[in-house]
Each structure stands twice: as structure tokens, then as C-alpha cells.
Amino acid sequence: MNKVNLVGRLTRDPEVKNTTTGKAVATFTLAVDRRFKNKDGQKEADFVPIVVWGKQAEFVGQYLSKGSQIGLSGRLQVRSYDSQDGQRRYVTEVVADEVYFISTKRKENNGSNQNGLSTGMGNGVMGLDEDFHLMADEDDIPF
User: Fold this and answer.
1) Helical (H) or strand (E) element with 57
2) How do residues 80-124 score in pLDDT, each as one tens digit?
3) I need a surface site. Which of 33, 41, 92, 123 has the fewest CB within 10 A?
4) Phi, psi for 2 (deg, rounded to 5)
């Protein structure tokens, strides 16, 4: 079984391109916090390359940006290619089948609500109705 589930934040805006056949592909890096702190008491993160295809790629390009917190489900893929210097290179990445929006990056008083989360999501965006509310970041949870 090859199944990967991750929750993290985008380290940069997604890059969306189209293949020669017109299929959308988005790439970005996801920063995923490790469960435990290191010996110095600091949090560490892994930086995981992500690839998304098709309609999901279009969604990612349109609605996500650096700092967005997402959850995703997909598979681990290892591929290789020959570089210009003739060396064989290996790339390990996650190919996401499902991408779930969790929250936006915190903003400085422009377009944000009292929790610091973006309120720029109008009715019908991403198929969500007016009762949709963003989840608070774990720093905002009172317990």
C-alpha cells in the first residue's frame, strides 16, 4: 500500500503549468511540522515536494498561496532522470490525489477578521456556502 496523508503550510506560491496536452500540473513545497521538538527544544519541519494534477491543480493555483495551511492525501513517488552532466538524479515527491483547504496565512489588518484569517471567501467559492467558517490555527485554541 502506498498512501500518504499530510497537513502543513505552503512554503511558496504554487507553480501551475500545462502539459503539451493541456493538462494542468501544480508543484509546491509543503512544510510539515514534526511531532516532537529537537534536543534544543525547537520545533523542526520536513519540507516535502508536492505535485497535483488536473482540476485539483487548477484549484491549488487559484485558491492557495504561500502560508496556506492544507491537508492532502496521495502517494509517494520516486522518479529518475538524467541531468545535463550525464548523472542519474532521483526525485522523491508526493503526488496528491486530494487537497483540503484548512486556513489562510495570517494577514496584517488588511482583509482579515478578528482571528487574523482571511474573510475574502465569498459565497459559492470552492462550493462552500455562507455558513462556512475557517478553522482557527492551533495557536488560537483556548485550551
Assistant:
1) helix 54-63
2) 999 999 999 999 999 999 999 998 765 544 444 333 333 333 333
3) 41
4) -125, 95
